[in-house]
TrEMBL record:
Taxon lineage: Bacteria, Pseudomonadati, Pseudomonadota, Betaproteobacteria, Burkholderiales
InterPro entries attached to this UniProt entry: Glyco_trans_1, Glyco_trans_4-like_N, Glycosyltransferase_grp1
Domain Glycosyl transferase family, chain residue ranges per copy: 201-349
Gene3D superfamilies, sorted: Glycogen Phosphorylase B
A Pfam family reported for this protein in Swiss-Prot or TrEMBL: Glycos_transf_1
Domain (Glycosyltransferase subfamily 4-like N-terminal): residue spans on this chain: 21-173
Protein's UniProt name: Glycosyltransferase family 1 protein
Molecular function terms, GO-annotated: glycosyltransferase activity
UniProt keyword list: Transferase
Species for this entry: Cupriavidus necator (Alcaligenes eutrophus)
C-alpha cells in the first residue's frame, strides 16, 4: 500500500532546557493535531521536557538543538540547525520563544532553503527591543497571538509589519474529561483523607511567585474560622522556594495545602478539585485554566492579561482584581457560602470548553496561518544530490 503524502512539512522550535510549561503543552497539542496529515519535526534541547514528550509521539521527528549555547558550542549548534533547515524541506518553521527565534533568523539568512517563519507570542514580555525589531524584519512572516490581549500589544510593536492572528489554546476534550463523582471523592480522600467535608481549590499553573498562589493562601488565612478550616488547596508544579513554603506554614495552613510536584498528567489532580484557580500577576491566556474548565471546574482567575478571556464572571468562574487580597477574600467568602453553586458553574465551564476550547478550532486556526504565509503552488526546490548525501556515502 503506497504511503500517504503529507501535506505540509513543519519544524517546531523551542529553547527551554527543562520544563517549558505552556510552551510544551502548546507544541504537544499541535503535534497531536497535525501529525496525522503533516510531516512534523521538533527541535529542542535534549534535556528539555518537550524533547522527551515529543520523542514518544508517533509520527514526529525530534532533533536535539540547544538554542542558547555558550562559547564555541555556538558553531556546533549553528551547523546542526543549518543542516536541519537546509535538508529538511520544511514549508514552515514555527518558533515559540526569543532564543530559538533569534537562531532561526540567523541560520535562515544563510540556509539554502528559506522556509516561512511563524512566531507564536506566548508571554507578556515587551516586544519593542532591538532584538525584537530585527526578528520582526528579518525572521517573521506571521505572528500568532494566544489571546486578543496579546494581539493588541503586538499591533503596537515592531511585529505590526506582519499579519497578527489570534489563535487561542485548544484542549483535547476527550483527554480532559470530568471524573465520576465517586472517583473525585476517592482522589480527594487520597490527598486529604476521608472525613470532614471540605472545598478543594486546585491549580496546575505552577508554583512560581508570579502565578499568584500565595495571594489565595493569604486570603484564605483571613477568612472567618468556620470557612477557613474547610478549605483545602492543591498546587501542581516544580517545588516552590523554601521562603514560599515557609510562608504557608507562617499562615497556619501547612496541613491544608498539598504540593504535588511537576506532573506529566494533571488530570487526577484536577479531578480532586471543586474549583480551579489561576491568580497570575502576568498571564497571556493559560492552558491550566482551560484544562481545568474542560474537567468541569469553575475557574477563579485574576484580571491579569488575557485570563479574563477564559471566564464569564459569575457564570463559569470568577474574575478578581490582580493581587488584591481584600477583593479575593470577599470572593472566597461568596464561593464558600454557596458551595451548591459549584457543580452548576462547573457544568457551565464544561459547556463553554466544548463550544470554544476544542482542538479542532485550535488546529484549524493554526493551519490557516500556515497557508496564509505560503504562496499557492510554491514548494521548496530539490537540493543538489551531493548535498543530500552524507560524507560516508
Amino acid at each position: 500500500m503506497p504511503a500517504v503524502e503529507k501535506e505540509l512539512r513543519v519544524l517546531f522550535t523551542n529553547f527551554h532546557r527543562g520544563n517549558g510549561g505552556g510552551h510544551d503543552t502548546y507544541v504537544i497539542n499541535l503535534l497531536a493535531g497535525l501529525a496525522p496529515a503533516h510531516e512534523v519535526t521538533v527541535a529542542a534541547p535534549r534535556t528539555s521536557r518537550l524533547f522527551r514528550l515529543a520523542s514518544g509521539h508517533a509520527g514526529v521527528e525530534v532533533a536535539a538543538v540547544d538554542f542558547a549555547p555558550r562559547g564555541l558550542r555556538w558553531l556546533r549548534e549553528l551547523w546542526a540547525l543549518w543542516r536541519l533547515i537546509t535538508l529538511g524541506r520544511f514549508d514552515i518553521i514555527h518558533v515559540n520563544g526569543s532564543a530559538d527565534h533569534k537562531l532561526i533568523m540567523l541560520v535562515r539568512l544563510v540556509a539554502l532553503r528559506r522556509p516561512r517563519v511563524v512566531y507564536t507570542k506566548h508571554n507578556d514580555h515587551r516586544s519593542n527591543s532591538v532584538g525584537n525589531w530585527l526578528r520582526a524584519w528579518l525572521g517573521t512572516h506571521h505572528v500568532i497571538a494566544v489571546s486578543d490581549y496579546v494581539a493588541r500589544k503586538l499591533r503596537t510593536s515592531p511585529y505590526s509589519r506582519v499579519p497578527v492572528t489570534t489563535v487561542s489554546h485548544g484542549i483535547d476534550m476527550g483527554h480532559f474529561a470530568p471524573p465520576a463523582p465517586a472517583e473525585a471523592d476517592a482522589l480527594r480522600a487520597r490527598y486529604f483523607g476521608a472525613g470532614s467535608p471540605c472545598t478543594v481549590f486546585v491549580s496546575t499553573a505552577g508554583t512560581r511567585y508570579e502565578k499568584g498562589w500565595t495571594d489565595l493562601l493569604e486570603a484564605v488565612a483571613q477568612l472567618p474560622a468556620h470557612l477557613r478550616t474547610g478549605v483545602r488547596v492543591i498546587l501542581a508544579g516544580e517545588a516552590p522556594l523554601p521562603c514560599m513554603t515557609g510562608k504557608v506554614a507562617a499562615l497556619g495552613l501547612g496541613d491544608q495545602v498539598v504540593f504535588t510536584g511537576l506532573l506529566d498528567d494533571v488530570r487526577p489532580t484536577l479531578a480532586a478539585g471543586h474549583t480551579a484557580f489561576v491568580l497570575s500577576r502576568s498571564e497571556t491566556l493559560s492552558f491550566a485554566c482551560r484544562e481545568a474548565m474542560a474537567m468541569g471546574l469553575p475557574a477563579l482567575v485574576s484580571d491579569a492579561g488575557g485570563l479574563p478571556e477564559n471566564v464569564t464572571d459569575g457564570q463559569d468562574g470568577w474574575v478578581v482584581p490582580c493581587a488584591n487580597i481584600a477583593a479575593l477574600r470577599a470572593r472566597l467568602e461568596q464561593i464558600l457560602s454557596a458551595p451548591e453553586r459549584l457543580a452548576e458553574m462547573g457544568e457551565a465551564a464544561l459547556s463553554k470548553s466544548r463550544a470554544y476550547f476544542g482542538m479542532d478550532t485550535f488546529v484549524a486556526g493554526t493551519l490557516a496561518v500556515y497557508h496564509a504565509v505560503l504562496e499557492p503552488g510554491v514548494r521548496p526546490q530539490p537540493l543538489p544530490a551531493a548535498l543530500t548525501q552524507s560524507p560516508t556515502q
